[in-house]
């Protein structure tokens, strides 16, 4: 066992970041390929820099944020948060009282931990569902949350979406959609409507997922709800600061759905070739992935006593980083992060690496892990 | 009554920001003088811009943050948060359990609301003191917080500081110092030691107060405590994001205590002249201020039925902004902000405005408010 605690995982992350720092210092940004799909970006203009102060920043960028944000998500008003998790915490503090109940509906259980964790902090109760048969509100329910698309990019069917909103509104319960990646995956790839256009009261998205903005949360919806949530955010220091708001505005201005659509053909081709190298490769909406279980099956089909499947995935991700300069989540993510190796073909850096390079990197990394 | 609710205050803030936006667009940044002492800044280099991504950013800037941060605050390790309020929330979540007690000692009651608010959210109890006679720990106390310097820059005497740390450590209770502005006011102006050098376990400071960094919280102290607090921060989305971390690093690199010391002579001179215009002017560590009560006394010594003292201060701050392009807190602050008009002579923009301009602005603004 190499990974025994979240402390070991923190060391793994720190080692990965040290390697990236050395690489960037020696060979520059173009030597690195961040295919994690979570690279984030900070596309502010050089001329923006001297305006990113506490009062000048919002003065200049908040009206642009309203314009670009409502254009992207719909709704009456938007607000920006330090992270999507921070937006969710602010929402629970504003809309749910201790003792009340939050119901969460998602494409597949379990939820991202940030939702039940914030509900618990507020002293409310929590239940989650992934099928309409079991879904039921009670008299204590004060908020319904829908996850539009999971971390592994599994998307909620439209019929479920509409039904949950209908049931909740029949009881006057507000609906918030956690559309972290969904606000783009659902709309651009699956041609679903925006969450607010389906009648949700609030939607929140992560501006680093399928777009090149900073890691941050952008929320839109009903004006008076947004005001109450923003008030809580200011109280606990959860709102995005001016430089981040400027980064979000510029990323929204630059956002091109067509770039995601253009990557789909390449994804299909790469998924097919990668499948010849290794049959446990699965397609995702924006690329392909190797789950830790499939990796274990491929490398030690008879099982092994030395390494867990998470350790194998971590090893593979570290080899991809060190030997091929390709960034994936199991190498750089926080402790407890997904152990799936996902290569995102819609990411900006994917444009700089050719198909052959990706396939060779996979093939050679598999060989290295096999030998270890 | 003009200000009846926090909604009215939000409208006041929005009007001020609209005015600033128009001014910046038409006449550029040099037409504005932010003397709030809370201007914040984002001194990243243009060459930093393409490194401010989710994984490249920390790879490059986290080791610099450790180096510059521990040099500024002392301690074994530092961590950066979206705001000082967010750092305090993360600390309470990590170190205090529901049902336990937090004791807060400060130069003057009452506390900034962020501390009791976060204690309440965690389900703990809270007591605050400003004198050693009343100060007492109980068996439930699990954290002691000391405020080094208040929002109005009132500083805690060293003897109190040492005594509180001694009493707390005798009972093995960790001490966190909220040194938002104190980490510079106390050390640079009052020649007090750094909080960690006095034996505190943790200290947090605001990187926009008496230095030109972004609005953010920088915490330093005992390594294992910092790790636990940082873990909670990541869970709820409270940590500073890479662009903000880069801004903090550059601001720490640029920080010159001498600039604050150099401003003191000018402060004394200005305070004296301003006192001739209007006797309710009080000296602060970095400039001078007019409290709302003193303003009311000056303008309507016989009292008035039309405007509260907060309204008078807001009006004065708005006139200073519109007619003289000088930013002070009662004009641009969030709802519930201090109604003291404070002019910070150590702030960067103070270098661009001469003494006469400041005194004339005060004189003329007082006249305008008097007429209204």
TrEMBL record, chains A, B:
GO molecular function: L-seryl-tRNA(Sec) selenium transferase activity
InterPro entries assigned to the protein according to its UniProt record, in alphabetical order: PyrdxlP-dep_transferase_arc, PyrdxlP-dep_Trfase, PyrdxlP-dep_Trfase_major, SelA-like, UPF0425_MJ0158-like_C
UniProt keywords, alphabetically: Pyridoxal phosphate
Residues the record lists as N6-(pyridoxal phosphate)lysine modifications: 209
Pfam families from the UniProt entry: SelA, UPF0425_C
Needed co-factor(s): pyridoxal 5'-phosphate
Chain ranges of the UPF0425 domain: 280-354
Name listed for the protein in its UniProt record: Pyridoxal phosphate-dependent protein
